[in-house]
Amino acid sequence: MSKGSVLLVVSDDEAREALHRYFTTGGYTVLTAVSNEEALTAMRRWLPQAAIIDLDAPGLDAAALCGEIRASPRTRHVHLTLLTPQARRDDRLLALSSGADEFMTKPVDAEELGLRLRNALRRAEYQNLVDPITGLPGPRLVEEQLRVLLRRSDEWALIRSSLRGFKAFNAAYGFLAGEEVLRFAAQVFWQTVEQLGGHDDFLGHAGGDNFVIITALDRAAALRAALSERFDAGVRAHYSFREREQGYMIVKAAGGADERVPLMTLHVQLVTSAQGPFYDIMELTQGG
């Protein structure tokens, strides 16, 4: 199981390969980019938990890149480390003012960088900033975005989703198989948002088998339909051949009798600004 995903935005081939090798060996999923455009595309498509950005890379505007990452609800939680050519005060101020969490002076000690990253991801997990299974923004960031939603005066849509049948599947197959289903669901969500959503759409894992998307009203219907279709079709691969053929699992009920449990499906609910006004988060997250 991957410890997390890291985006390397480093133009120097030798340095990039060395860091790629170090983090891959350490159990991380590693993505690479050499330009602002490539980095932003990777951010939106793969949602890494951390990015390491070379401040001095030719053709790269590191400060602008950090600013764009911080401006988007989908990526503002990502831990950003800037690599600076030397420990000058101007470099330190630029690194921090651009939205980076920390900086390191080149040449970089890969082991120190790895330990810093490990500690940062642990803190994010502890603070509920990032879900450790799916890598999506976690409950704390979901709540933060819902509070922002309460203050908005424009049109918006909130898509709330849960996995029907997940508890029965988890009990029958075990928590490791359950985690694989959650990762599959997260993949369906982020790929669908990437294809049909907007760059400013928010996607989060609210805990358990609950996911949320905040999007524009005119994109909500297409997202909702695609999510259900893609999840319901793909989740069948997590069951046995026999269960796929018959369309249900057989589990033991409380009294010991066999009980048929349907295969998992995605339960999707839509809340829109037109249904408001809303005065607290409970109104947004309950009912339906």
In short:
The protein is built from eleven helices and eleven strands.
Structural notes for this entry:
This protein is α/β, with parallel strands linked by helices and 288 residues long. It has two domains: 5-126, Rossmann fold, CATH 3.40.50.2300; 139-285, Alpha-Beta Plaits (2-Layer Sandwich). The protein is built from eleven helices and eleven strands. The strands form three sheets. It has a five-stranded parallel sheet, with helices on both faces. α2 (36-46) runs parallel beside α3 (62-71). The longest helix is centred in the middle third of the chain and has 22 residues, at 175-196. 34% of the residues are buried.
Record keyword descriptors for this entry:
Rossmann fold, 288 residues, 22% strand, globular, alpha/beta, 4-stranded antiparallel beta sheet
Ordered list of secondary-structure elements with their pairings:
Elements lengths: L4 E5 L3 H13 L3 E5 L2 H11 L3 E5 L7 H10 L7 E6 L4 H9 L4 E4 L4 H17 L12 H13 L5 E8 L1 H8 L1 H22 L5 E6 L2 E6 L1 H18 L6 H6 L1 E5 L5 E5 L2 E8 L8 H5 L3
Parallel strand pairs: 1-2, 1-3, 3-4, 4-5
Antiparallel strand pairs: 6-8, 6-11, 7-8, 9-10
Helix pairs in contact: 2-3, 7-8, 8-9
Which consecutive residue ranges, at least 5 long each, have pLDDT under 50?
A: none
Oligomeric state of the chains? Answer: single chain
Sheet bearing the most strands, described?
Answer: 5 strands, parallel
- Share of residues in strands: 15-25%
Q: CATH homologous superfamily name of the largest domain?
A: Reverse transcriptase/Diguanylate cyclase domain
Secondary-structure element string: EHEHEHEHEHHEHHEEHHEEEH
When the domains are counted, the total is 2
Tell me the total number of β-strands.
11
Distance between the termini: 35 Å
The name of the CATH topology of the largest domain is Alpha-Beta Plaits
